[in-house]
Specification:
- The protein folds into 3 domains: 93 residues; 80 residues, Signal transduction histidine kinase, dimerisation/phosphotransfer (DHp) domain (Helix Hairpins, Orthogonal Bundle); 146 residues, 2-Layer Sandwich (Heat Shock Protein 90), CATH 3.30.565.
- The chain is 58% helix and 15% strand.
- The strands form 3 sheets. It has a 5-stranded mixed sheet with strand order 6-8-9-11-10. Strands 1-4-3-2 form a 4-stranded antiparallel sheet.
- The protein has 428 residues and is of the alpha+beta class.
- Helix 1 crosses helix 6.
Length: 428
Amino acid sequence: MLRLFLGLYLVLAVGLVLALQTVEHTFNALLDDQMQAYNREAVRGQAWSLVEQLRGLDGPRREQQLQQLRPHYGLGLSLVQSAELNLDDQEKALLTEGTLVIRQDYTQFIASIDGGSQLLSIKLPAEPSLMPFYMAGAYVMLAGLIGIVLFFWVRPHWRDLEKLRLAAERFGDNDLSARIQLSKRSNIRDLAEHFNLMAARIEGLIANQRELTNAVSHELRTPIARLSFELDQLKQHADPSRNRALIADMYADLGELEEMVSELLTYASLERGATVITRENIQALSWLDSVVGSVALEAEAAGVQLLIIECQVDEVRIEPRFMARAVINLLRNAIRYARERVEVSLVRSGDHYEVRVNDDGPGVPLDGREKIFEPFSRLDASRDRRTGGFGLGLALVRRVSQSHGGHVEVADSPWGGASFRMTWAHLD
């Protein structure tokens, strides 16, 4: 706090002194004519009286007369020669007109006596000798008052900044729950709120990273264990027909690993924002038809009827690759759990597009409707890939919709199954 206070105090004090000097010199320059006129009028009567008493006298007698007058005026009166004053043309013109010439910051007045070379100099009394000390004392008092006011202004700022510093220090020491709470009157409240948002975001990312790491290690363990078992079986059996079956299973396990890695890479890329979403204008019906066609064989193999029931828009603006991946994941999820049919539609609601996927399966319980969009999350206890998948498909759907300025949610379909609705913002 001391460094902040002293820095602000010095800047304020020096700035104030410079401002006062600048204002004084500026106004002196602007008001010089008015000030001269004012002071000339204030001294004009006394100057006229003195000149009248000196006019008509010769040099020695003028000095004697002036000596007699000095005690009664309280002014510095003296006779000077014009050559000693180095008068400029303007001052000479004023004297010729009988006008007083003012010098030395309005403290010396020069008057013409009879139009000759001898002039009357009138000086105002000097300021008290203690005046500089009084002015210094005034500046010291002003500096002290500025320091007091500045201290009470800096103190709450310093207190809030100290809270922010301590919160940042705790956060840096791995206390990811560190947050800062400031009064609504605090001038750095916005900064504190941005810090809290940043801290919450980082905490969430680290938590997701930890969960993802743990889940990945768990998911990889099963196919790797199967591959290890199958390699052991190859060593023990010399029967070619049996070996071919084991090799086919190994290829299946490798395909499973490859698919999982692909999903992980896509999800991680969207999660950390490394992928640039470049939207394109796509013909809606043809795009949706091609997406549905890519999973038509899977639906037929599962005995599920897959239909496009509605497409209300002619054109959509999307990143086609990621959006197609998200819709395919929704369709595969619906096909996996549907009994007989899955229906998909594309509509526009206000300034958003919406893809709806309805199925007639068992649906999603209320307490699991948010959980299913988390990575490696499955509602069924079984780890069977036939029903559970990897647990990354719906998480990827959510990331794709968020990257397009939308969201995804699940509700009940008209037949009692699940109704997934993925929306994204319409951009011109």
